[in-house]
Design brief:
Strands 1, 2, 3, 5, 6, 7, 8 and 9 form an eight-stranded mixed beta sheet that branches. A two-stranded antiparallel sheet has the order 4-10. By secondary structure, it is an alpha/beta fold.
């Protein structure tokens, strides 16, 4: 399956440097940079969608997220199909790089991602990932009018490094 061209064209229009790599992105990019795969998880916090970006090897700690929003952890649930549509999800797939241009969805960005040269995002192609720097990710989000909350939301590791 090919990467959706409209998302790559959007990156091009913003002059964001990216590389397309195979899904085994734990290996270095063609330029030799070690890649961190990013998990894009959409959760509902008191019924409102929130996009959480963190290293894919971790689960979101809902207690930490609840503390950030000043709510009870039980009020954080997986996003519904309607909420996923609001964040530009297609076929249940969500990514920071596919957010609609007029998004008003809050984004929580893990501190672990800041300062990284190579963050890999799944844009819906099963065998390819798009790699950008954290600086370009922040610039991309700012272009959408999104000011991410940069904090720690990592819970239990679900993968080894």
């Amino acid at each position: 399956m090919a990467l959706p061209k409209q998302y790559l064209q959007r990156l091009d229009s913003l002059r964001i440097h990216y590389e397309v790599v195979g899904s085994a992105a734990a290996s270095p990019t063609p330029t030799g940079t070690k890649v961190m795969v990013v998990s894009n998880e959409c959760l509902a916090v008191q019924g409102q969608p929130v996009l959480v970006l963190q290293a894919a090897r971790y689960q979101v700690d809902r207690h930490k997220l609840a503390t950030i929003y000043g709510v009870d952890a039980d009020s954080i649930q997986p996003a519904t199909p309607t909420q996923l549509t609001a964040v530009g999800a297609t076929s249940g797939h969500v990514s920071a790089l596919t957010l609609p241009e007029d998004t008003h969805v809050p984004v929580v960005l893990s501190r672990q991602l800041v300062g990284r040269a190579a963050l890999a995002f799944d844009l819906g192609a099963a065998d390819q990932l798009v790699v950008i720097s954290s600086a370009d990710l922040l610039r991309f989000l700012r272009n959408l009018g999104v000011a991410p909350r940069i904090t720690s939301v990592e819970g239990v590791a679900v993968q080894e490094d």
